[in-house]
Amino acid sequence: RAAPAEDRELIVEPPASPDDRLRRCVRDLAALAGPPSLCIGRSPDEALDTLIEALPTALDCDLVYFSIPGSPAQERVAVDRAAGTAEQLAEVRAITANDDDGANATVFAAGQRWWCIGAEVPLGTKRGRLLAGRRTALDAETDRVLIRTAANLIGTIVETANVLEAARHKDDFLAMLGHELRNPLAPIVTAVDLMKFNPSVQR
């Protein structure tokens, strides 16, 4: 049973200080920095889906978008810490396509204004793109470091997921090859064994 109103105290938590937010973001990004644990048992697409779920909280951002070149190219968007719709993805893609430097941007999307900072996602010789933003202004120094760290993390996770996927395909191929070779060889070996008991067919 709830206590009478006069006996209850109103508890208001103070807003997090910039240092507290930085420590929490660094902690969350460090927790994501174990790519094998994020990639094992998942396809590259599933790893990216898991990443887009985690990054808005880790970066303390309301808008996160990243695009990764490839065949096919990969894109993900999260709005208000939830996976974005196809319409939101198309809208952010169209806006960022017109952004020349990709470093800082004020994005108007879904009827909102977002202060964003961008960073390159390293993928070998290719480069992807990460854009993260909030409805309130980002810190030009702290958030730039966090977003660059997240961009490097995305690149590492994508490459790790691709390596593990290639290894899985190789294992599947070798297993199938062993099975396909074993099936026709078994009756041949059996026939040869039976022929040993018939002197007339020894030659």
Number of helices: 5
User: Could you give the count of β-strands?
Assistant: 6
The helix/strand class is alpha+beta
β-sheet strand percentage: 15-25%
Helix content: 40-55%
Strand order of the largest sheet: 3-2-1-6-5-4
Overall mean pLDDT: 78
- H-E order: HHHEEEHEEEH
Distance between the termini: 96 Å
Sum up the overall morphology in one term: elongated
Low-confidence stretches: none
Instruction: Determine Rg (CA atoms, Å).
Output: 27 Å
Largest sheet: 6 strands, antiparallel
Structure notes:
With 203 residues, the chain is of the alpha+beta class. 50% of the residues lie in helices and 20% in strands. It is built from 5 helices and 6 strands, in the order H-H-H-E-E-E-H-E-E-E-H. It has helices spanning 18-32, 35-39, 44-59, 86-97, 142-195; strands at 63-68, 74-79, 82-83, 104-109, 112-123, 126-134. The chain has a 6-stranded antiparallel β-sheet. Strand 2 (74-79) and strand 3 form a beta hairpin. The mean pLDDT is 78.
